[in-house]
Amino acid sequence: MKIGMLGAGTIAQAIARHAVRHGHEVVLSNSRGPDSLAPLVQDLGPLASAATPAEAAMADLVVLAVGWPQIPDVAAQLPFLDGTVVIDATNQFATLHPRPTVADLGEITGSEYVASLLPGARVVKAFNSLFARYIAADPRHEAGRQVLFLAGDDAGAKDTVVRLTSEFGFAPVDVGSLREGGRLLQLGGPLSGLHVLEQD
Hints:
By secondary structure, this protein is an alpha/beta fold. The chain is 31% helix and 24% strand. It contains 8 helices and 12 strands. The strands form 2 sheets. Strands 1, 2, 3, 4, 5, 8, 9, 10, 11 and 12 form a 10-stranded mixed beta sheet that branches. A two-stranded antiparallel ribbon has the order 6-7. Strand 6 (93-95) and strand 7 form a beta hairpin.
């Protein structure tokens, strides 16, 4: 599978390393251009490359892992995502340190907002509830596998994410739709920041 990364920060890098370790191609992108990613691409190895966000979005599966304020700008650069599975790994931090604030979206969840900006995409919320260091680490532990909560409105898209992340070694757990499940996963939800292992 070819996986396009929108963003190249700690979470995107962690997912990319799992992907190349299991034989998948990754196409990284950021706001500074492909040349700025040359050291990271070299570190990841021959299965990695760099491109523009629009080019990365042409992959078989796309991971959105940029800062919340950057999402509209990134979305505006993308082609129509005709059925593409997009993993939304974002959290709705309107501002970060020193005073983090959460964007007020009213009744909709963060992933419903993301989906509204990506017409044609099949959005699955995943990876946002884990700290980057737990995503980067081997998900297989002595006591079990790292649980990865996910939510989405498209069963086929969720199946794709379940298969991929299971291959990485995670224990994916479907918590429902982008509305109900998304509320559990997003900032302030009961599953946000929850570190759980599934016993093998």
